[in-house]
Amino acid sequence: MTDAVFSGGRFRPGTGGETFDVINPADGSLVERMPIAGVADVESAVADATEAFGDWSRATPGERSAALTRLAARLDSRAREYAEAETRQTGKPIRLTTEFDVPGSIDNVSFFAGAARHLEGKASAEWDGVHTSMVRREPIGVVGSIAPWNYPLQMAMWKVLPAISAGNTIVLKPAEMTPLTSLMLAEDCVAAGIPAGVVNVVMGAGRQVGEALISHPGISMVSFTGSTPVGKRVMELATQSVKRVHLELGGKAPFVVFDDADLEAAAHGAVAGALINTGQDCTAATRAYVQRPLYDAFVALTGELYSGVRLGDPMDPATDLGPLISVRQQQAVAGFVERARGYGATIVAGGEVPGGDLARGAYYRPTLVTDVSHDSEIAKDEIFGPVLVVLPFDSDDEGLRLANDTIYGLAASAWTTDIFRGLRASREIQAGCVWINDHIPIVSEMPHGGYKQSGFGKDMSDYSFEEYTNVKHVSMDITGVARKPWHRTIFTEPTT
Known about the structure:
Strand content: 15-25%
Number of helices: 15
CATH superfamily of the largest domain: Aldehyde Dehydrogenase, Chain A, domain 1
Largest sheet: 8 strands, mixed
Strand order of the largest sheet: 2-1-8-7-6-9-10-18
Low-confidence stretches: none
Radius of gyration: 25 Å
Shape: globular
Helix content: 25-40%
CATH class of the largest domain: Alpha Beta
Number of strands: 19
CATH topology of the largest domain: Aldehyde Dehydrogenase, Chain A, domain 1
């Protein structure tokens, strides 16, 4: 049995009074049984983080950078171990964890090791002529972060790294279903020389442990990645003590294909962009709008490519697509497709739970849907599964209007060989990331975050420091004059 809490530099059994089984969604087998954390563990973790904050916030940028550099090297030496743990707890194909999740996470560490040395404020100057002003960036304090189950290691990194490289300490709550790599990360932080208490992990139920963390008076900032409805609850709780909030929430990414697009590139991009992580990605392509001259050819080619995607054992390097995270999620995805069938949708490919050996897991075949309206449930709501809906449009204006007709605004892409169309799409689509002629790639140097009900604030890049630092203006008199000219607005020299 694995401990569910890493706090103050050591593992501890959770005090929640219950156990939680981490299940391999590929076959339903038990991966780990864990005694979950309780409210008392949140108290201890926040206390450990608070104690560590004083020294860590005063560590030099060079010291923090060196510790993160050591962490990157340690993670690199354990890359295969991390990839296998991530695959077991999520069902991700080992090809995805070894080529995307783990190396991307290590690159994040390396980026923030460098970024830690570049936390700059505005240069000193005498803006009013009689005071020297400077701007300091200072850590906020103890950060309470809640990460999702779809990218457990990467999302843990996106929470932990900007926080601690800026001098904060953190208490991270991973999703109950996928805590293993977050706990490994916390242990490796200490092994790399990051002081005990800087990075703490508590694994427990969201409604109990998560809400206790958000509401704790010792938490100065909350960062949450997850669904929009839960994000609203996080904001509600955080407002009670006026905490800073960073939210990365749901998405329904449009994939806009203009009639001059490279058809082969667009179809391959749609398959990769829609099926990444079995579609359990809030930036995944979920609704393709294809200009009518290319519509039929796009549907035919994409459907053909969908039918060739290989489902199988996630540990097999030949597997393209793994299971969904759970049978519950499998049923939710299947429900969207079956309801769409009921109102006349055409299922071009997939649309079923596979049989045979795969029936033991939470698999669902990659599904391509046409003949639905833009206002239908399957085209409007976040499905979080391997389902792509394709709809036609006529004019450029219509395509961009449909792309923006959503409560979400996390990511989007546009496909065209016309630079002016591409620039227009990048300007007018309301999303935090707009790809042109690609969909999904991210890099540590560039920010990630949403518009509208996809949340606010940025992960990765130097822009993330805006979330995790306080900006302080320091103003110093340079005249040495006791009676300043502006004092006359309050009182004048006495007359005699």
